[in-house]
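Support reply, case 0932

Customer input (verbatim):
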Amino acid sequence: MSARTAVLPADGRRSAPTDAEVTVRSSFRFSADGLRAACVATGTDGRHFAEGWRLGPAGPRLDLRTELGSDPAWTQLLPLDGTNVLASWHGRGGAQSLARLTADGHRDTVSVPGGRPLRLLPAPEGSGLLALGVSGGAARDTLVHSVRGDRPRFEVAARVAGTLLGGTVLGHRVLFTRLLDDVPRPVVLDLRDGGLRDLTAHGGPAHVLAAAAGRVLLARLTPEGNRLALADLDSDAPLRAVHGDTGLPGTVHPLALDPDGDRLALLTTSGARSFLTVLDPFSGTARQIDMPPGDLLPFAAWTEHGLWLPHSDPGRPRTFGWVPPAGTALELPEPARPGHQPARLETFPGADGPVEAVLYGPDWRTARQVVLALHGGPNSRWTLGFDPFLQALAAAGPAVVALNPRGSTGYGAAHTLAISGAWGGPDLADVTAVGRFLIRERGAERDRPALYGVSYGAFLAVLAAAAEPDGWTACAAVAPFLSGPRLHADGSAQVRGMVERLDGLTPVRDRLGPRDVERLAPALAAPLLLVHGARDDSVPVGHSRALAARLTSLGRRPGTDFHYLELPDRGHAVLGTGTADPVVASVVRFLTGQGRPAPPGSVPAPPDTKGGDQ
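Our regenerated output:
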């Protein structure tokens, strides 16, 4: 990497982390011309920074890092000209603020007017704007704003009937997918006069995916499924079908067209791995790009300097990888870091066929301890990307088996949809089947596995601990919920929508009965650790409080038979980003049996017996 510049706010209270201390990067955004990027970086101590990057022929160059002081889950960043970054965030009351972050730490913060969330898009090159903003207007209307000035101000550039999705900036035009009467149509907004042109002549319902050199990549909705096609932005010429996109293994994510519009970058995910392919959309000729086993995100920019996209692998936290113009391999700005745990893939016998896992640490067959780790979601998966908590856990010595049971993404629709209407059904069967396999193969002289889960994985972990009381040495559940129906009743509108979409309301009918962990609490026998953030806006903290209170009512002793840690200043992402975080250290110590002290500032026992504040 050619530069490592750390820039602090004007008060300069604490030093910024070096690149070696950054463990998580998220919220990646590119400028309209693809020559700059911005992202949120989080260090081992949990502080969040805005980063600005220049993407040139010598690779990615970090030229801005300034402390954010806000939750990245509610933060949007955009790269600006020079080394500046535009930041937007929401306060606890929902009010949105906007600020231009500069290299000297100066920032003028303004409130976004109108009370409607503003989604930021990069400003067209040479427009003189800071950004574009998209927000809901009156019923079924969308407003497009121009954001300009050192102290940002807002002007309405267009009002459009319907909902505008996405937003690909191409010169003075912006391509959106307009959702009107539940039908998606590609449209083009001309920023010079606010005029809107419908591209329905290009073949009916479709979503805009990318654009370059006057060509638009569309995902057409057909009775046979989504099909990729290319449209000419400046004419009504017939669509040209993209060839070669259906024969690739795994799930395909179109990323970007090259500057001439002649090549298409595709991300494919197959299980826990990602692959990068460059496709000639006219001939169907495909070339796979060499890259180390790892994880890519479906965000990319393709410029004259090459193809840029975020990459991570077990030895490298996420950063910018790039394929130079004549390159055949993904280049990375720094080598894998010494001391980070390598990872590998292995399949295990689930209840109805093999399931894949990402493995860290020693051989699980002979290791002194094994931890079976369950991801959140449920529509998610463990990948071969960098995971700070699994790194911290593996560094403590146990073998870590990060399982992708049914319900996980990346293994085809049947695998993902197996738990629709059956939360805690097929996935629980896979977890307990793998648990029994680990016990059998390791032998009676070795410890049984421990369970770790976060969010949906925490719900699943507690279910597994109740379903197989003698199968586990310990269970650590981070931000668990009690059941799908109770999460739906207590959650936000977004959470309720997720539960409905993935059908977490239908009860599983079998010998174990309804999947409510409070109802199953009497069956819990292994030592249990519950960890929850009091400010969790995804899974209400009352769910962990209710489970802790239920265990207490059963005569279980807090601090001995089970442990309850509530962090008053944390939200859903209650775990920190490295071993420097006391909550991470506490969970690792619990899972490895090295003692279970509560981290500073936590609530060590259930605060009430009625479920608390929701």
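We compared this against your earlier run and they match. Two observations from our side: The chain is about 15% helix and 35% strand. Confidence is low (pLDDT under 50) at residues 1-14, 609-614. Please reopen the case if you see a mismatch on your end.
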